[in-house]
Structures are given as C-alpha cells and as structure tokens.
Design goal:
There is one protein chain. The protein is an alpha/beta fold. Helix content is 34%, strand content 16%. The protein contains 7 helices and 6 strands; from the N terminus they run E-H-E-H-E-H-H-E-H-E-E-H-H. It has a 6-stranded parallel sheet, with helices on both faces. Helix 5 links the parallel strand 4 and strand 5. Helix 4 runs parallel beside helix 5. The termini are far apart. Bound molecules: adenosine-5'-triphosphate.
C-alpha cells in the first residue's frame, strides 16, 4: 500500500522550516513521497497578495532540485482562484486509490482544521499529521479527525519573517536554501 504525504501551503517563499517538515514526515511515517502543493490563494488569507504562482513554483523547484522523494504539484495554481484542500485531496485519492494519504500541517493550523471546506469528508480521505512549530502551542485536535503528531525538527522560521527581512534589507541566508536566496534577490521578490 502506497504511503503518500501531501503538503499544502502558500510557500511564499519556501523556507527551511517547510523542508524539515517534509523530511521529518518522510522519515517518521516511512512515506514513499511527499508532494508540495502551493495554493493559488488560501481561503484563510483572502486579502493577502502572494507572489505570483509561477515565482513560488520556481523557488520550490530550486529548493527541491535533484530530490527524488519530494515532488512539486502545481494543480492548485493551475486551477486558480481560492484553493480548497478537499478538491486537491480528491484528486490524490483517485490517483492513489488504495493508498494511504497523510496531510501535513504545522501546529499553528490544528485549531483551524474543522473550518476547512468539507472538513468531515476530508478527514475521511486523509490522516492529518501535525508537525511542531516553535511558539505554537498545539491546539486540541478535533475529535473526529485521524491525527498524529511528529517529532519533527522544530525550527521557528516563517515565510512572513523571510518577506519582512527582505523588505528591510536583512539577510535571509541559512533560513532558505542558497539557490532560493539567490533567486529572491535576483528577481527582486518581496522588496
Ligand atoms: P506565512 O508566514 O506567510 O503565514 P508560513 O511560514 O506559515 O507562511 P505556509 O506556506 O503558509 O508558511 O505554511 C505551509 C504549511 O507549513 C502550514 O501547514 C504551516 O503550518 C507549515 N509550516 C510553515 N513553517 C513551518 C515551520 N517552521 N515549522 C512547522 N510547520 C511549518
């Protein structure tokens, strides 16, 4: 039975916290693959203007270049509009019929899970995997969800922090991969 990790988010930009979430999940859950699935627009951040999908995809490709256990899936960006996880997960349930799907979320997202669109159907299709995030006290997971927590490699970095550091001229070295840092600088993102 295939064990597949799904990792959605804005990835604006992808940072080392994201990569460590994926690595921890791959190892601790013995997954075959983790798919990074950047959202076109998060339903919970409707007013936030993200960097264009194509740029966020490019940064993900640089971050994951040469990796075979991690894949990037542009389906939410291709669909456009507000991205709902249930639509994406249904596509994976068809693609990996009979497999096991694990949906990775940072500890800051746990309290929100019941508000996700068609949350009960979603909970039937995936097991949620909570990865610790420094500074985020884990909220109580919803009772009707299949949930497990990982040890992870807790790292208190966020995309907002990266964007703020770029905007104020501070270094993002060691918070994102070197190729990602270079591309953010060359493409004048987040200024
Ligand atoms: P922003 O600061 O812009 O809100 P973010 O850093 O939280 O962004 P997202 O792309 O929104 O990044 O996150 C995608 C997923 O990754 C979410 O489930 C989030 O909780 C998780 N995540 C992000 N950073 C970390 C981290 N440092 N540790 C654990 N989980 C994380």
């Amino acid at each position: 039975m295939q064990r597949i990790g799904l990792f959605g988010g804005s990835f604006d930009p992808v940072h080392l916290g994201h990569l460590l979430v994926a690595q921890a999940a791959l190892e601790e859950l013995e997954l075959e693959k983790v798919f990074f699935i950047p959202a076109a627009q998060s339903p919970f951040k409707p007013d936030r203007t993200l960097a264009p999908g194509a740029e966020r995809l490019k940064l993900l490709r640089l971050a994951l270049s040469g990796q075979t256990l991690y894949e990037i899936d542009g389906q939410e960006i291709d669909r456009g509009g507000v991205s709902y996880t249930i639509d994406t997960v249904r596509a994976y349930a068809r693609r990996f019929a009979g497999g096991e799907l694990f949906y990775l979320v940072g500890a800051d997202q746990v309290g929100q899970l019941p508000k996700w669109r068609e949350a009960n159907d979603l909970a039937g299709l995936v097991e949620f995997v909570i990865i610790p995030r420094p500074g985020q006290a884990g909220a109580h997971p919803p009772a009707n969800f299949r949930i497990r927590s990982l040890m992870g490699f807790p790292l208190g970095v966020s995309s907002s922090q990266i964007r703020e550091r770029v905007r104020t001229g501070r270094s993002i070295e060691f918070l994102v991969g070197p190729a990602v840092a270079e591309a953010i600088c060359n493409n004048r993102l987040y200024l």
